[in-house]
Amino acid sequence: MWHTKDVEETRRNLRTNLESGLTEEEARERLEKNGPNKLQDKKKESIIIKFIKQFNDFMIIILIIASGISAVMAYLEGSGDYFDSIIIIAIVVFNAIMGLVQEAKAEKSLEALKKMSSPTARVKRNGKIATIPSEEVVVGDIIILEAGNYVPADCRLVNTSNLKVEESALTGETIPVLKDENIILKQDVTLGDRVNMVYATTITVGGHRRGNCNRYRNVNKSWKNCKNDYTR
Asked: Of 98, 176, 192, 205, which sits 20 to 30 A from 69 (CA to CA)?
């Protein structure tokens, strides 16, 4: 919907200041209200579920069946020799424990990589430029973008100068798109033709821009109206 509104209407609806941005207090309140600017993480499985899943393998199932058959045969013969069954089960359990440990290590490594590679955003707060994690971008923030920057949230442009954005990951268009904040579009215009907008995960490749981010990712996986604003 934000591609159908002009700059001033966008500013009013998002209750922001194009020159100084939000105050720290406003940003904190909006972050608490709407949640962080990211998609909801997948719910983590309990350690018991992870342990049980370690047995979800054809060869492991075969070994468990073999152990059961061996125990039954020992019982029917009356020999009381369950040594083979116990050894097989012990090996299976040990394998499951090792798999669980390796999985836990892999998850920790992935979390560390996520923290290291998480994008940042330059925003205007209280009239000053600050660098914050992209997930802390809130509705109404003024974001500063330069060539090569990752766009942290969907934005309605408010001031551009030969701004070009590479949107291949979003639309499949291999050629950078020239943007223009002065154009007002109809509601049914396709995503790739919304030249007065930039979208999260795209990359600026040239020019300058000032824009209003109109949506952002939050913990509810829903898109909220947001304002991001400035590139130069």
From this structure: 98
